[in-house]
Amino acid sequence: MSICDVAIIGAGPYGLSAAAHLREAGIETRIFGQPMEFWANKMPAGMLLRSPRPASTISDPCSRFTLESYESANGVTPVKRVPLETFVDYGKWFEKQAGCDLDRRNVRAVRKENGAFKVVLEDGAQLTARRVVVAAGVGKFRRIPAPFTRLSEGSCSHCYDGRKFAGMGKRVAVIGAGQSALECAALLSEAGIEVEVIARLPMLRWIGMHPKLHQLGLLSKMLYSKHDIGPIGLSRLVAYPHVLYHTPLGWRDRIRTRAVRSAGAPWLVPRLNNVKITTGRKVVSAAETGSEVKLTLDDGSERRVDHVLLGTGYSVNISKYEFLTPDLVQAIDQFDGYPKVGPGFRSSVPGLHFLGAPAARSFGPLLYFVTGTEFASKELVSHLSQNRN
After folding, report:
1. Based on the structure, what is the number of domains in the chain?
2. Interhelix angle for 13-24 vs 373-386, to 10°?
3. Statement: the pTM of the whole predicted model exceeds 0.90
4. pLDDT tens across 259-312, in order?
5. C-alpha distances in Å from residue 21, one per residue of 16, 111, 126, 220
6. Mean pLDDT of 36-46
7. How far apart are CA 123 and CA 135, in angstroms?
8. Residues near 132 by beta carbon (within 8 Å), at least 6 away in sequence
9. Domain range spanning residue 216?
10. Chain segment 255-272, per-residue pLDDT in tens
11. Are residues 100 and 227 both part of a single domain?
12. HSE-CB of 333 using CA atoms within 13 angstroms
């Protein structure tokens, strides 16, 4: 059995960034998982990042491994909208350049024992860690609305399943009105598939429909942060997670949900010209009939399609992290599936920390996005450096 100071579970942007910062601070760290696995295998092929370029860099201590550095080193032509494939390659390049002590095995279980953590790997190997940092992403948190829970995997999938569009048939219903749903609908349509988007919203919403407000020089910088999360004014507040942390939970939730409400990027609008859009309606039942899926909407109308693709986002629920044992999950103070985390992203279980989306209920919506890796890693390192014993 080996021993380490910090074990990081997850090798996506948050895990890789934390490992790079901790290594620079001289804190012994091991990181577990396949690098960029969720982005590489679970996101729709052909996707473009919604975040602007300045908000698509994974943070490292000296800003040496930026997206622009990767492009320059690898002869990649910069484009305004970063393709998924470029971002995945960038993350893997980041891991190599940052010298993260990466173990590609997945973690099977984490247990608290004698004031430390026993970490069991997929092959049965074990190690002891003084601290565990969970940076396992949102792949386990897919939201499956009730009407679709009884459909087979062949008839229904989620945008985060990484399923190939070619196997979905000729008619697909996409459920949802956020970026994932709308971009998947555009990609399906461009692949020659008949698509209908069904959304409960009375009309689709679009992000950044006032571009002139971003072109006012110093005034724009006062109204919007570099992270570009949330509408005018609110964007600046989101950029200060410590302020949000000290904001009453009710207000914090209102700010969080407003900043990340369902909406699409405006560059999707022309790509949806051949997509049927049905708004103000919800699916009340879904049933397989032969090779088809029959959908019944709340107005009594029906749809028959070959496949249903859910662009319904995710709901954080740390009990779905299979590597956390039930007794450990029970010991973590939570609100509605989110762990309550404090400075350094520490949970109520000493030595257990959560980065990324699970921390967003405590520190705000910045933690939902790649751009939040800078704040997260610096906050984590600051706390661990001051509390090494």
Report:
1. 3
2. 40
3. yes
4. 898 999 999 999 999 999 999 999 999 999 999 999 999 999 999 999 999 999
5. 9, 25, 25, 31
6. 94
7. 21
8. 6, 7, 8, 9, 110, 117, 119, 351, 352, 353
9. 211-259
10. 999 989 899 999 999 999
11. no
12. 11
